[in-house]
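Case 363 in the screening queue. Each case pairs one protein sequence with one candidate compound; here the compound is zinc ion. For every case the pipeline is the same: read the inputs, emit a complex structure as tokens, and attach any notable structural observations.

Predict complex for case 363.
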Amino acid sequence: MTSYKLLWDDPVCDIEVPERLLSSYEQLEYYHLVGRCVHVPIREGSEEEIMLVHSSEYLEVVKSTQTMNQEELRRVSKNYDAVYFHPNSYRCAKLAVGATLQLVDSVMSGKVLNGMALVRPPGHHSQRNAANGFCVFNNVAIAAQYAKRRYGLQRILIVDWDVHHGQGIQYIFEEDPSVLYYSWHRYEHQKFWPLLRESDYDAVGQGNGKGFNINVPWNKVGMGNSDYLAAFFHVLLPVAFEFAPELILVSSGYDSGIGDPEGEMKATPECFAHLTHFLMQLANGRLCAVLEGGYHLKSLSESVSMTVKTLLGDPLPRISGEMAPCLSNECSQHLVMNLDCNISGAATLSLLTVCSTSSTIRP
Ligand SMILES: [Zn+2]
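Case 363 output:
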């Protein structure tokens, strides 16, 4: 999955580089974490598995890029938003799907308790008929559908801590009450990519899926550890415990970490250890983290390492910085929690209790 890259100049796409995987793996080795992990063999996702989420027409388009020259690749890339294709993209995208499904199988069969799939291309923006935002096939969405089919699961929680809204996952599951999707994302009142109205807090799902889609839009940059933890404590975790998932899939993007040029947020790598730890209390610890974004190589690789260290059961690192969430964060949470969602009653109560007693809110 390191064998494709951008072949022409494009300032939007040039941050999505093979070194993202290489530096993450090197850092895992540096911390001696690789040797402590069980290596799960990789395979390609099958066409049938890809079509759990994507149309056959779209699959054929991606397949056709294998034999294209550079000019043709540029042309097909332009049909989508913020995506580039390379002759190896199709094979790498199939490997990303297959690796994710191998992890799901390993966790569901009890071979491993949890795990992380270091994959590329990422998946959470891709849609039934479209590549989008560096994403070709929606690895995590395919994994959720696969787990439902193969293991008969009825409640899957997807936590998307990437700094972008995984609109692809939202679209795929917005009418499906068996998949609870939670995403926080840089939003800035719809001024930040992907610039969608439906990334806002009031997109709660539709039909039977109403109440099973939770968006926490950040309307400011600079969110830090306390903001992320507050969003977990007051929005996600109360709902997640009530939902009682049988499996957790994490759309594990680290562009929400400090130093990332996309996110411009301030959460340190240690924060991801804590987020991972809290999720491990659910679903009997059955957690599959799947890499999405993350473009600052040092921040990315440290955060990946913190996640894996925690999955291995190491003690949590101390968390630094201001421990009160900022005012903008509180506003986002208020908006989310005041929604009339069937499932979020407990969370609403919890947040209002906290807000009424909170006296240390940063501006
Ligand atoms: Zn992202």
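Case 363 observations:
- The first helix runs from residue 19 to 30.
- The two ends are 43 Å apart (CA to CA).
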